[in-house]
């Protein structure tokens, strides 16, 4: 099933400048694996092993996957994944 993925500016060089791309999968992990086949290198920027990098936030629709099932969070056709880099500063 196809989900849209909103790509932050920092990762757009990996998606040929595209702000929104599409991925297939039944979970966030599967969608990221599918993205990797289209845009090599993107997976390493999002996850380390079976964990999302601590400086990356991923949302399914408006729900942070850290408060759901992490990378095992289920997705369905029409869902939107939003990738946001964590922001720090003062």
Automatic annotation (TrEMBL):
This is PdtH, QsbE. InterPro entries: Beta-grasp_dom_sf, Mopterin_synth/thiamin_S_b, Sulfur_Carrier/Prot_Modifier, ThiS/MoaD-like. Gene3D superfamilies: 3.10.20.30.
């Amino acid at each position: 099933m196809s989900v849209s993925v909103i790509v932050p500016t920092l990762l757009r060089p990996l998606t040929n400048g595209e702000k929104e791309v599409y991925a297939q999968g039944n979970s966030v992990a599967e969608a990221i694996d599918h993205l990797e086949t289209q845009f090599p290198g993107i997976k390493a920027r999002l996850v380390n092993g079976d964990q999302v990098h601590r400086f990356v936030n991923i949302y399914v629709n408006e729900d942070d996957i850290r408060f759901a099932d992490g990378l095992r969070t289920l997705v369905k056709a029409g869902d939107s994944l939003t990738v946001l880099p964590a922001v720090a500063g003062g």
